[in-house]
Design goal:
It is built from 4 helices and 3 strands; from the N terminus they run H-H-H-E-H-E-E. It is about 45% helix and about 15% strand. Helix 4 links the parallel strand 1 and strand 2. The protein has a 3-stranded parallel β-sheet with strand order 1-2-3, with helices on one face. The protein is α/β, with parallel strands linked by helices and about 100 residues long. The chain is globular.
């Protein structure tokens, strides 16, 4: 019963979260994209014509943002989970720590 209450609290918190709602309106896969935007505004590390590897990429909002806002030489997204296709991004399902 306690688990159910926690689940309901999480769902209610998600509904009220401004970034969750904004990500749905803007078409992003998760609210995490706003963290990337904030970090990039502060440090200006994302530039055109760079190569990007997104480790632990699921659900893919960071790759989605980079793909739509930058011209990358190469863009690779890796995760253990399935990721829906993203334009101009090569997606690999697997463990990036695995030697093979």
């Amino acid at each position: 019963m306690k688990k159910n209450k926690i689940s309901k609290n999480w769902i209610n918190k998600q509904r009220r979260d401004i970034y969750v709602r904004q990500s749905k309106v803007e078409g992003y896969r998760s609210r995490a994209v706003y963290k990337l935007k904030e970090i990039n505004e502060k440090f200006k590390f994302l530039k055109n014509n760079i190569s990007v590897i997104d480790l632990g990429a699921a659900p893919g909002s960071w790759s989605q943002y980079i793909s739509s806002n930058l011209k990358c030489n190469k863009h690779l997204a890796i995760d253990l989970k399935e990721i829906e296709e993203i334009k101009n991004v090569k997606i690999l399902k697997g463990d990036f720590t695995d030697i093979e």
